[in-house]
């Protein structure tokens, strides 16, 4: 019985770490993945590098084309999109 009592604090520490650190991080990662998968042509985005531009093309291999100035387009990996500033309405 004493052996179980010694493990209770360790189990409590793990439970606290799970609910305070691991679970919120998983939710944040899932929300980011959903945001990235919902990118459309015309969305204005900010990359993790700080570039602001408009999505001009969504490619199939986890890559998008972002126009950062008139006629200046760069290829960006979808996962490096940090934030979507403005969404476009879906075409009907």
Characterization of the model:
The protein has 92 residues and is α+β, with helices and mostly antiparallel strands. Helices cover 39% and strands 33% of the residues. The protein has a 5-stranded antiparallel β-sheet with strand order 4-3-2-1-5. A hairpin with a 4-residue loop joins strand 2 and strand 3. The longest helix has 36 residues, at 2-37. The protein is rod-shaped, with a radius of gyration of 21 Å. The model has no long low-confidence stretch (mean pLDDT 90).
Question: Fraction of residues in helices?
Answer: 25-40%
Name the poorly predicted regions: none
Structural shape: rod-shaped
List the helices and strands in order: HEEEEE
**What spatial order of strands do you see in the largest sheet?**
4-3-2-1-5
Radius of gyration: 21 Å
Give me the number of helical elements.
Answer: 1
Please give the largest β-sheet. 5 strands, antiparallel
Distance between the termini: 66 Å
Q: Which properties best describe this structure?
A:
rod-shaped; membrane; protein transport; single chain; 92 residues; transmembrane; alpha+beta; Preprotein_translocase_YajC; translocation
Describe how the helices and strands are arranged.
Blueprint lengths: L1 H36 L6 E4 L4 E7 L4 E7 L2 E6 L3 E6 L6
Antiparallel strand pairs: 1-2, 1-5, 2-3, 3-4
Membrane topology: Single-pass membrane protein
Subunit structure: Part of the SecDF-YidC-YajC translocase complex. The SecDF-YidC-YajC translocase forms a supercomplex with SecYEG, called the holo-translocon (HTL).
Family: Belongs to the YajC family.
């Amino acid at each position: 019985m004493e052996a179980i009592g010694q493990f209770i604090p360790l189990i409590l520490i793990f439970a606290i770490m799970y609910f305070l650190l691991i679970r919120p991080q998983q939710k944040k990662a899932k929300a980011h993945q959903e945001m990235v998968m919902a990118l459309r042509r015309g969305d204005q985005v900010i990359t993790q590098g700080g570039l602001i531009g408009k999505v001009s093309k969504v490619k199939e291999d986890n890559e998008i084309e972002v126009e950062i100035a008139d006629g200046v387009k760069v290829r960006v990996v979808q996962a490096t999109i940090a934030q979507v500033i403005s969404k476009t309405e879906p075409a009907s």
